[in-house]
Write a structure and sequence with these properties.
The protein is built from 12 helices and 8 strands. Helix 2 packs across helix 3. The protein starts with 6 loop residues before the first helix and ends with a helix. The model has no long low-confidence stretch (mean pLDDT 95). GO terms for molecular function: lyase activity. InterPro entries: Aldolase/citrate-lyase_domain, HpcH-HpaI_aldolase. This is HpcH/HpaI aldolase/citrate lyase family protein.
């Protein structure tokens, strides 16, 4: 049985951090190669904050298989109609933004996982199984084990229910969306403040208490703070987006050249 391992889950299950890049600009499978060349384990194909369509997301996900990168998709909401189509077509996990209650977490698990964990409908010919015509029971168990479900905490309400969300069976990662969370808490941009440090400690503790759950963080793009989160037990980290990587390096280069021109 040709099961394709979820590289992000494999890393985290081994106690290592899984690093991912958010895709907002990429419309070609080449971004999968760029993600691997830059040391990333997974990509977040962002259908919440980009104009990308489903067909493009699928093409990128298929390219990810050739580079050993895990394709994940961030959907707009828990009832997003194309979520299961994306999983059937090769996406290896779903990232759900702004999870506020355990009921929402249970709902996304229900949609993404097969019986007995959820109620996802079965089909034949799964990419992650090499299109082998396997018995439904075997295929469902294998895919349940490799399909990643990520719940993002981005509000005060979600934070108040953090432990309950982490305890939901089938949730793999509880992921802080730091930008929106700090905005909702009334302290926008205060990534280095005591509030977020305390939240990180609480998140890691909640995931450990729930067992087999991994703490994640995104939005705070400061390298030393990301490293501190990993050293404290964080395992699922969004490094940055393709957009910001491109702008940052392009700006560094143009500033360098303009500075050289002025100096001469």
């Amino acid at each position: 049985m040709a099961i394709v391992e979820n590289q992000a889950l494999k890393r985290m299950r081994a106690g290592e951090p899984a690093l991912g890049m958010q895709l907002r600009l990429g419309r070609s499978g080449e971004v999968a190669g760029a993600a691997r060349a830059s040391g990333h384990d997974w990509v977040m194909i962002d259908l919440q904050h980009s104009g990308m369509d489903v067909a493009t997301a699928v093409e990128i996900s298929l390219a990810c298989y050739g580079f050993g990168v895990t394709p994940l998709v961030r959907i707009p909401d828990v009832e997003y109609a194309d979520a299961i189509r994306l999983l059937d077509a090769g996406i290896m996990g779903v990232i759900l933004p702004d999870v506020r209650t355990a009921a929402q977490a249970r709902r996304i698990v229900e949609r993404c996982k097969f019986v007995p964990v959820g109620t996802r409908s079965v089909t034949v010919g799964y990419v992650a199984l090499g299109y082998e015509p396997l018995p439904v029971s075997i295929a469902a168990q294998a895919l349940n084990n490799e399909t990643l479900v990520v719940c993002m905490i981005e509000s005060a309400e979600g934070l108040s229910n953090l432990e309950e969300i982490a305890a939901v069976e089938g949730v793999d990662v509880v992921h802080l969306g730091c930008n929106d969370l700090l905005m909702d808490l009334g302290i926008p941009g205060q990534f280095d403040g005591p509030e977020l440090r305390e939240i990180n400690v609480r998140l890691i503790k909640a995931c450990r208490a729930a067992g087999n759950k991994f703490p994640g963080s995104g939005g705070d793009r400061n390298g030393p703070r990301q490293r501190s989160f990993i050293e404290a037990g964080g395992r699922f980290v969004t490094t940055d987006s393709d957009l910001r990587f491109m702008v940052a390096e392009a700006l560094r280069r143009t500033n360098e050249l303009r500075g050289a021109s002025v100096a001469s």
